[in-house]
C-alpha cells in the first residue's frame, strides 16, 4: 500500500516551511480524489506535519487557455472537477479554484503552505509550468508521478525505438507498481482554514457559460466527466463487454472498447486502478487481459516516453524518424488521385463513405475507434498536398474534436501515421516506404454495421 519511492522526486533542496498552515496539492494532471499517489502523499505529509491538505486548480481561460482546448474539452474537465471537489470535501480536504494558470495558483497559495506537492505530466506546457513553479515557490516541492503504471524514467532512460523495445522493460517492472493504493485518513480537516474558491464548480455548466473560449465544438452527451462516471463505466464494461476483447478489439462495431481514454487523458482515473480491475475481472480470458494491458500500459507509456524524450513532438520536422521524412520527401511530388481541403475533411465531404462516417463520429461524439483512427490518418496523408501539411491537418483535427486530443497518445499516434515507432515497408506512391493502409482494411470488420452504429450515436447527440 506504500507509494513507491521511484514515484517521488524533490524538485528543490528546501525544508518544509515551519510556519505554514497547510500542505498544498496542485491538481493538474491527476484530477481525482482517489487512487491518486500525489494526493495520498500530500495527506501523509500533512498528517506528519500536523496540518490540513488543500488542493487547488488553476482554470485557464480566454487567450491564456490551454492550447487548442474548446468547449467540448472544458465541459468534460469541469464535470470531472465537480466530482473531484465533492469527494475531496468528503475526505476533509480543502479545494481552491481560480482563473489562473496552474503555476500562478500554486505560487500564490504556496506562500502559506508548509509543502507543495505536484503530480506529473510530460507535455511541453506542463514542463514549463513546473519550471515556473520551482522558480517561484520558496517552500519544499515534491513531485509524485501517478498517471503511468511505471514512472517514465524508471522504465527507460532514452527515447524508445518501438513498442518491442519498451515492452520487455515494462514487463520486468510493472508487477512492482500494480499494487492497490490505500486511501489515507485525513487527521486535520481543512474547513477551519477559511479558504474559499473564486469559482463554484458545483455547477459546471454555469462555469462553462462564463468562460471565454471556442464554443464551435460543442460538449458531447456520449461521455460525462469524473472519477465516479469512469468507475461506473469500467465496472459495466468488465461485466458485459470485456470477454472477447482480444479477438474483437480491432472491430469498431463489436463494442469491445472500454472508452477509458478520455478519463485517462484528464487524469480522472488511474491506469493502475484500471489494470487491477482488469486483472481481477471474472469475465474475459487470459488473452483478453494480456491484450488490454498491452494497450493500457505498453502502448500508452510508449507515448509518454516519446513526448518526454522528444523536443518538438508536435512538429513534423522533429517528431518523425529520419528515414520516414526522407522517404515521404522522395514521393512528395506524386500525383494525388484525391485532394481535399482541411474544411472538406472536417465536414466529412470526401468520396469515401466509411472515412466520412469515422469523421462524423469524431466530430459529433468526440471519439473514434483506434482501428479507424489509423485508416482516418493514413487517408489524410494520401489526400493532402504534402506530407508536412498532412501532419499539421491530422494533428489539428485530432486535437480539435477528440475528447482525448492534445494528449501524449494523440501526438504519438499522429506521428505513427507518418512512420514513428514503425519500420520501412514496400515502397508505394505518396507514402514511399511508410506503412500504407488501403480500403481493404475495412474488410477486417463489418463496415456496414459500423455505419449503422455511427448513425445511432450521432442521433443520440441530437
UniProtKB/TrEMBL annotation:
Gene3D superfamilies annotated for this entry?
Answer: 1.25.40.80, DNA Cyclobutane Dipyrimidine Photolyase, subunit A, domain 3, HUPs
Domain named Photolyase/cryptochrome alpha/beta is located at 21-152
PROSITE patterns linked to this entry = PHR_CRY_ALPHA_BETA
Q: What's one GO BP annotation on this UniProt entry?
A: photoreactive repair
**Top-level taxon of origin:** Bacteria
Enzyme Commission designation: 4.1.99.3
Q: Which Pfam families match?
A: DNA_photolyase (PF00875)
Annotated GO MF terms: deoxyribodipyrimidine photo-lyase activity; DNA binding
InterPro entries tied to this protein: Crypto/Photolyase_FAD-like_sf, Crypto/Photolyase_N_sf, DNA_photolyase_N, Photolyase_Class-2, Rossmann-like_a/b/a_fold
SUPFAM superfamilies assigned: Cryptochrome/photolyase FAD-binding domain, Cryptochrome/photolyase, N-terminal domain
Q: Give the UniProt keywords, A-Z.
A: DNA damage, DNA repair, DNA-binding, FAD, Flavoprotein, Lyase
Cofactor needs: (6R)-5,10-methylene-5,6,7,8-tetrahydrofolate; FAD
What reaction is this protein's catalytic activity?
cyclobutadipyrimidine (in DNA) = 2 pyrimidine residues (in DNA)
Q: Which PANTHER family match?
A: DEOXYRIBODIPYRIMIDINE PHOTO-LYASE (PTHR10211:SF0), DEOXYRIBODIPYRIMIDINE PHOTOLYASE (PTHR10211)
The family note in this entry says: Belongs to the DNA photolyase class-2 family.
Q: Write the protein's name.
A: Deoxyribodipyrimidine photo-lyase
Organism name:
Methylobacterium brachythecii
Q: What is the lineage of its organism?
A: Bacteria, Pseudomonadati, Pseudomonadota, Alphaproteobacteria, Hyphomicrobiales
